[in-house]
Specification:
With 432 residues, the protein is α/β, with parallel strands linked by helices. Helix content is 31%, strand content 19%. A 6-stranded parallel sheet has the order 7-8-6-9-10-11, with helices on one face.
Length: 432
């Protein structure tokens, strides 16, 4: 896509929107940015840069006059593809794409894209580490916290791009093989060299109307792959078995019954990618052994008077919290809650009853979580994270674990799971 001299409207101004704006300016395009919140949501540094580059803004909501005065419209991941902005653009036959698809137009390096309901950050991080250990230069970005559009013009010395992708980032990917309007033809479909789908589970029904729509968004990671590409699928995930007949990519399974030496499905997925790219298996196992985990995912913050404090803020689903509970041997005092994503918390019932001594619940989802677990364990509602940590500490005994594993998004109290995790660590580290 040649955007030199073209007007590109970015919907959503936060981290991805700011990265997109800088990318468009580097490509000699003209930027305008539409944001639903007030201008206070953008840092002063960015607004100063934008003024120097004649970036136009509208705040406190989107308007058809501003949005449709464009050659291309790019959606930040937080903007649904069924939003009014998309409808306005389609009525005017204006090209609409998501941040990942837009940035991929300017990427000349092979992309390894990882999605799934849980484990994405760990697997994407481990893939980048095995390549680095093998002597390759890697760019790790996407949903892991660094927008793809921030790095896509600086890949001259990079061998592979590893992307962690959510359903939000994939739902706007279009099928290049289908007849398109003149506007949508302006962007090529997103096409990774290797796609990795870890596992499907109940998630993001606050954004998607049902599980079928959520699964369909995830599967779009494969939609433009050819016979020269690879799709890595979880053998033990029933949803994954419906994918191969519908794609052209070569299918490689992980987590199969014959993998006797690999008990961790995340490691199994990484090994499958390594095998495709001729990375030595022993080298991979060495990386696994040395890996200390990712921030905000079962991250040990400290031990105090014999009690461990674990930050699992990235666990925004019931399945992610279940994985945490199953991998902690100690008795657990669990802190959870936040904004509900229409999650079925009851799937944790048996495990919570077996492993959780006490639960401290915060945020908008308090009543729903109480309903799911109140008859199973001792549960107490708290006004905020600090109160929950204080009460958990008061009730913990030597040998216990205080675990923040929210099962919810952070948006009722924090900007994102990272801010929530940092707040947890700050409070815990200030305990005396």
């Amino acid at each position: 896509m040649d955007i030199a001299g073209k007007k590109v409207t970015i919907i959503g101004g936060k981290r991805s929107g700011m990265a997109l704006a800088r990318l468009v300016i580097r490509l000699n395009g003209k930027v305008q940015l539409s944001e639903k919140d007030s201008e206070d949501c953008l840092p002063h540094e960015f607004k100063s840069w934008a003024a120097q580059h004649n970036v136009s803004f509208e705040f406190n909501g989107h308007t058809p006059e501003f949005v449709t005065n464009s050659d291309v419209i790019v959606l930040s991941p937080g903007v649904p593809f069924d939003s009014k902005c998309v409808r306005w653009a389609q009525e005017k036959n204006i090209c609409v794409c998501g941040e990942i698809e837009f940035a991929a137009q300017f990427c000349s390096k092979p992309i390894i894209a990882v999605t799934g309901s849980n484990g994405k950050t760990t697997v994407a991080t481990l893939i980048s580490k095995i390549f680095q250990k093998a002597g390759h230069q890697v760019c790790l970005c996407g949903n892991v916290g660094f927008p793809f559009s921030e790095f896509v013009c600086d890949l001259d010395h990079v061998d592979y791009v590893v992307l962690e992708l959510s359903s939000f980032q994939l739902e706007s990917v279009h099928d290049s093989s289908l007849p398109t309007s003149e506007g949508s033809r302006a962007v090529e479909g997103f096409k990774p060299y290797i796609s990795v789908i870890l596992k499907f589970s109940h998630n993001h029904l606050d954004r998607h109307k049902d599980l079928e729509e959520y699964f369909a968004a995830k599967k779009r990671i494969t939609i433009n792959q050819s016979s020269e590409d690879f799709c890595v699928l979880n053998y033990k995930d029933s949803e994954s078995h419906a994918i191969p007949p519908k794609i052209e990519a070569q299918v490689v399974y992980f987590n199969s019954d014959d993998e006797m030496t690999v008990s961790n499905p995340n490691h199994s997925a990484v090994l499958a990618v390594g095998q495709i790219c001729s990375v030595d298996k022993d080298l991979c196992h060495k990386v696994f052994k040395e890996f200390e985990g990712v921030e905000h995912r079962l991250e040990k913050v400290r031990s105090l008077n014999g009690v461990d404090f674990i930050n699992d803020s990235k666990a925004t689903t019931a399945q992610a919290a279940l994985w945490a509970l199953e991998n902690i041997e100690q008795p657990i005092l669990m802190i959870c809650g936040g904004r509900d994503k229409n999650i079925d918390f009851s799937v944790l019932g048996e495990t919570v009853q077996q492993k959780v001594k006490q639960m401290f619940v915060i945020g908008e989802a308090r009543a729903k979580i109480r309903k799911a677990f109140d008859e199973l364990i001792n549960l107490e509602e708290c006004d905020g994270l600090e109160e929950a940590i204080t009460k958990a500490r008061q009730n913990a005994s030597k040998g216990d674990c205080v675990l923040l594993s929210p099962m919810c998004t952070s948006f009722d109290m924090f900007a994102d799971f990272e801010e929530r995790g940092r707040a947890f660590k700050k409070i815990v580290n200030n305990l005396t």
